């Protein structure tokens, strides 16, 4: 495959995981339209990724060195005990994992706690709206960020792509925000908020603050 097409297996894997740069992804997407071999390889990676999602594996984070540099820039205080934050986040994900379909598509409220070193806590509310849904976030004890760092909300697609759905601006230490999504919830597997170094880059570069699964009505 690599000799015929010029695409290394790691490039195809990165494309499936949504980590290939945009320009390279565009070129590869054009190539896939006419190459069944490469498309089959990408499909295999996508199936593996979906299996991991359904097992609620942790979402991809920046490499440790990058994470440390970003945290040093954006966070003014570090107070959240790691074991408490991790345990609460795991409990929230476990709650999502056992949701059964709800005939009347009732709103789902999921308690969340921040991952270290952040200390925010609160809940994420998923409300059905037409063919899509609204994500309502209310967090207290939100850490201030050093400008130009920002909080950003993301959805993790079932296909493996990461999609930004907007910035979340705290009012003091309270973050109260809502994000309207026009696509059905079964297009997505997870929602999370990160602390990004700035609002310029469209990619997920910063550490995760809170995360949870997306209910499947």
Keyword list:
6 helices, single chain, alpha+beta, four-stranded antiparallel β-sheet, 217 residues
Reading the helices and strands in chain order gives: HHHHHHEEEEEEEE
Strand order of the largest sheet: 1-2-3-6
Helicity level: 25-40%
How many helices? 6
Radius of gyration: 18 Å
The unreliable regions are: 54-58, 78-86, 97-103
User: What would the average pLDDT be, to the nearest integer?
Assistant: 79
Q: Which class do the helix and strand fractions yield? A: alpha+beta
Distance between the termini: 40 Å
**Biggest β-sheet description:** 4 strands, antiparallel
Report the principal-axis shape: globular
Total strands: the figure is 8
Note the beta-strand portion.
25-35%
What does the model show?
Helix content is 32%, strand content 28%. It has 217 residues and is of the alpha+beta class. The strands form two sheets. A four-stranded antiparallel β-sheet has the order 1-2-3-6. It is globular. Residues 54-58, 78-86 and 97-103 have low confidence and may be disordered.
């Amino acid at each position: 495959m690599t000799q015929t097409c010029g695409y290394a297996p790691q490039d195809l894997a990165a494309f499936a995981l949504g980590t290939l740069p945009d320009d390279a992804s565009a070129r590869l997407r054009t190539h896939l339209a006419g190459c069944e071999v490469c498309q089959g390889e990408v499909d295999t990676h996508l199936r593996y990724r979906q299996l991991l999602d359904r097992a609620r594996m942790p979402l991809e984070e920046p490499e440790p060195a990058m994470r440390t540099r970003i945290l040093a820039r954006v966070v003014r205080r570090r107070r959240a005990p790691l074991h408490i934050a991790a345990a609460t986040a795991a409990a929230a994900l476990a709650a999502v994992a056992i949701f059964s379909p709800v005939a009347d598509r009732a709103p789902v409220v999921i308690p969340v706690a921040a991952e270290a070193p952040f200390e925010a806590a609160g809940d994420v509310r998923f409300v059905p709206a037409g063919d899509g849904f609204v994500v309502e976030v209310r967090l207290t004890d939100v850490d201030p960020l050093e400008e130009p760092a920002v909080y950003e909300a993301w959805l993790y697609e079932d296909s493996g792509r990461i999609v930004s759905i907007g910035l979340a601006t705290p009012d003091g230490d309270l973050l109260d925000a809502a994000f309207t999504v026009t696509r059905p919830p079964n297009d997505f597997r997870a929602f999370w908020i990160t602390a990004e170094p700035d609002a310029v880059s469209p990619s997920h570069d910063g550490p995760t603050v809170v995360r949870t699964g997306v209910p499947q009505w």
